């Protein structure tokens, strides 16, 4: 901040601001800088601070395109509603808690041009449906917690949705949540047949809690029929509880349930065992003329599917430019 105060010519280079300082830190120099960021595109608000945030949002500048919120929308709405001209163009929203306090139903999020939504804390379907009612038909990318609540989600009305990411948020510091069963995944996949890119990240070994439940293989078989990109990042691919994960993936990509449009398969997570696990899997050649077996990756290459493996990290979804 000191550099920006002393060198005003650098201020047009600032594209993103994270307002983490306390109200007591807002002196004349800081305020002068906040009022002179003409190219600001991304704003992170860890906590509602009407003074600092009001100074920034009231300054002249282009509409904010990306917004990051930790607190529920209802907590920041009184502040943000004062500056509609700065928020009318928001296309990307990362909000930790879209469900609010769970007592009062939250108001709809008033960002009608929103195209990408990411949320971290699970909430029930009626709450999510209400919160997203004003932009659901425009949303092209959605990230949701990998939780039991997914079984009740109905994404039919999200007609523009093309990218869906289901992520275990436990590692992100938002506490543990009940993982979905395979039946929950089957249910939500049945409501988003329009999706072409899908990612699953988390404890996939717990996708079936009872022997009578559908298996993880059944969840894969329920994936959208026009899927072009699939990412599976498991916490681990080793051990008794995960023994069937790799086999289920192999059965999906070599069977009739695989989308004919599938072009990329991204596998990873855990301790890096995924590469070795899939290197040892053998399947019959795609022409089916003999019993010779080849590696799964070689088989997929024959049918035009690119396979990549990673040791960890996460599958990131970025905003698609139009």
TrEMBL record:
Record InterPro entries: LRR_dom_sf
Domain of life of the source: Eukaryota
Name recorded for this polypeptide: Proteophosphoglycan ppg4
């Amino acid at each position: 901040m000191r550099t920006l105060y002393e060198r005003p010519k650098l201020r047009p280079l600032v594209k993103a601001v994270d307002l983490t300082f306390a109200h007591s830190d807002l002196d004349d120099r800081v305020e002068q800088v906040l009022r002179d960021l003409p190219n600001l595109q991304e704003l992170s608000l860890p906590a509602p601070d009407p003074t600092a945030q009001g100074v920034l949002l009231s300054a002249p500048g282009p509409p904010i395109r990306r917004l990051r919120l930790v607190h529920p929308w209802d907590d920041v709405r009184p502040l943000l509603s004062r500056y509609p001209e700065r928020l009318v163009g928001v296309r990307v929203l990362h909000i930790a808690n879209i469900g609010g306090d769970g007592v009062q139903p939250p108001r709809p999020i008033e960002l009608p041009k929103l195209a990408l939504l990411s949320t971290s804390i699970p909430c029930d379907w009626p709450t999510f449906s209400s919160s997203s009612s004003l932009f659901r038909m425009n949303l092209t990318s959605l990230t949701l917690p990998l939780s039991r609540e997914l079984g009740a989600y109905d994404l039919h009305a999200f007609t523009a949705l093309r990218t869906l990411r289901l992520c275990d948020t436990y590692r992100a510091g938002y506490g543990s949540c009940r993982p979905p069963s395979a039946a929950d995944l089957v249910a939500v996949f049945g409501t988003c047949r329009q999706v072409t890119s899908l990612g699953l990240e988390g404890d996939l070994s717990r996708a079936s809690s009872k022997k009578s439940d559908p298996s993880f293989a059944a969840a894969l078989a329920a994936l959208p029929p026009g899927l072009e990109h699939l990412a599976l990042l498991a916490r681990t691919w080793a051990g008794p509880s995960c023994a069937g994960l790799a086999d289920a993936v192999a059965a999906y990509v070599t069977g009739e349930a695989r989308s004919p449009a599938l072009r990329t398969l991204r596998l990873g997570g855990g301790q890096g065992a995924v590469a070795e696990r899939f290197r040892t899997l053998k399947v019959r050649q795609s022409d089916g003329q003999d019993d010779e077996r080849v590696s799964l990756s070689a088989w997929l290459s024959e049918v035009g599917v690119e396979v990549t493996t990673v040791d960890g990290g996460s599958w990131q979804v970025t905003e698609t430019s139009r």
